[in-house]
Amino acid sequence: MLVSAKEMLQKAKAGKYAVGHFNINNLEWTKAILLTAEELRSPVILGVSEGAGKYMCGYKTIVGMVNGMLEELKITVPVALHLDHGSYEGAKACIEAGFSSVMFDGSHYPIEENIEKTKELVALTDKLGLSLEAEVGAIGGEEDGVIGAGEVADPKECKMIADLGVTMLAAGIGNIHGKYPANWAGLSFDTLAEIQKLTGTMPLVLHGGTGIPDDMIKKAISLGVSKINVNTECQLVFAEATRKYIEEGKDLVGKGFDPRKLLNPGFEAIKAKVREKMELFGSVGKA
Ligand SMILES: [Zn+2]
User: Tens digit of pLDDT for each residue in 1-39?
Assistant: First the structure.
């Protein structure tokens, strides 16, 4: 059964480790992440962006697939199904479809409007026992054209949003979505420490986990980060393993064209990547 991310993240915050949020794109992705979490006795968060939601034929399809897998694969570790960077409407649609957790990303709204909309969703998710992630200050990305540094949130605004009663808070600390530029300035630990000081026990979320050096990840966890989002990295290893299979001509040998064989190297690559991240984040054996 899907669970809210609240308990697993509060435990992570208290135990100074982080729970991995891994974005899913299809059945292979989901199965690889769930099996690895079960093998390692780790709690896990399955992330779904609105784009991936459309790709997978809608939120209800995803809820059906994930719930089916939890049962058929006999998954016993805590699993949350979470909307990633949701709009206000998207969050409501996921709640209705049966997600156990949603993110409302109001970071592009003026802070007053972000607060207003987040407040409404706090009331709704509280009533249903679901978890809610909010975001303050845009996190940088490839599309914004600013190279070298991600955006950094205002710690006072973080406190304003945290005080609304959200479950977890994403705040820009110089992190970036996608691949990091060569001249990236690194994470702003001063900002993180300041946010942590003002928000206390609130689990903090680090987006854009791909390409942040391991020592920075560990330091971020020590400063209060309890959820780390990983997306691009799984895509890269999946593509690499699939390309290798085809370049080696394995699809041309026997029944190598069978999708169950063709997609298997990518599936195994995701499993290995998820294992590596769970070990780094310290969530192994915490389920
Ligand atoms: Zn993100």
Answer: 999 999 999 999 999 999 999 999 999 999 999 999 999
Range of the domain at 145: 6-281
* CA neighbor of 2 nearest in space, from 51, 69, 48: 69
Whole-structure pTM value:
0.95
Q: How far is the CA of 108 from the centre of ligand 1 (A)?
A: 13
Q: What is the mean pLDDT of residues 218-227?
A: 97
Cα 74 to averaged position of ligand 1 atoms, centre (Å): 29
In this structure, what CATH number is given to the domain that contains residue 255?
A: 3.20.20.70
Task: Determine which one of 84, 105, 126, 144 is catalytic.
Answer: 84
Asked if residue 145 belongs to a domain, the reply is yes
From the list 28, 6, 8, the residue with the least C-alpha distance to 17 is 8
Establish whether 190 is a catalytic residue: no
**Mean pLDDT computed over every residue of the chain:** 94
What is the whole-number distance in angstroms between the Cα of residue 139 and the centre of ligand 1? 7
Number of structural domains, the chain? 1
Measured CA to CA, the distance from residue 114 to residue 106 in angstroms comes to 5
Does a structural domain hold residue 1?
no
Ligand 1 centroid from CA 210, angstroms: 11
